[in-house]
Amino acid sequence: MSKKFKRNMEYFVFLIPSLILFGFCVVYPFLSGMHLAFTDWNGIAPDYNYTGFDNFIRLFQDKQVLTPIKNTLFYGVGVTILNNILSLSLAMALSKKMKGKAFFKTIFFIPMSISVVLASFVWRYIFSNMLNEITGQSLLGAKSTVLIGIIIISIWNNLGSNTMIYLAGLAGIPKDYEEAAMIDGAGMFQRFRYITIPMLMPSFSICITLTLTSSLREFGLVLAATGGGPAGSSETFALLIYNYMFKYSKAGYAQAISLVFMAVLVVIGVALNRYFRNREVEA
């Protein structure tokens, strides 16, 4: 055996405990539960009947999933766009020389340490009490504004992570590029378009892909903030799966929905990652 092979085997040995835990907690439950999508199991009874592809056929004919799909897309796209615009803007501001930079970095990152449940309760109080006195209506209490309220909570709770990633990306851009562009007469917008954006493609690949896929499968925040209300106007696809599993006792159908949903998320994640990877440039 070569020394390189022995060294690689030593590295692999350290991975074994993590691989065992991942297999036991993720892979085995997933594989053992896949067949439930082809049954009429109610989630409680020990017996169930195999129904073939009936659950999947029903899913594509079920009009009740249209509203959760619309809510999920609106929420996911809204969070992704606003989060990345704000986090990139903050990162660019914090990358400049300024007093109290470390303090501001800490302030923007603190919400990341707060759970989504606690963040939901805090913002429900803000919307119901403080904002209600100004506008006369809580954002979470009206069908037309409930998703906007949830988006605000999500951005506040998760803005710090993307900001730090963009800060790291900005720090990796050679200063020589901007100095050369300034000498050639390039303005601030031109430098941002032709230098900053291309050099930040690895950061875009991480931030946009993770933000979109995580927001599309958002569950805890919506459940804690509104529970899908009022009248299902904030019910997301993940919450729909939860409701079919535990409220409506249709576990087989819920499993079928979750498998289709997982496949869609994988396709979106791979497509976005490949898109941005193909546009990366080397410093």
> What does the largest sheet look like?
none
**Gap between N and C termini, in Å?**
38 Å
- Whole-number average pLDDT? 86
Order of helices and strands: HHHHHHHHHHHH
Strand content: under 5%
Strand element count: 0
Radius of gyration: 23 Å
Please work out how many helical segments DSSP would assign.
12
* Helix residue percentage: over 70%
Low-pLDDT regions: none
Inertia-based shape: globular
* Secondary structure category: mainly alpha
Explain how this protein is built.
By secondary structure, the protein is mainly alpha-helical. The chain contains twelve helices and no strands. It has helices at 3-33, 54-61, 66-94, 101-109, 116-135, 146-171, 175-183, 188-199, 201-216, 220-225, 237-247, 251-277. The mean pLDDT is 86.
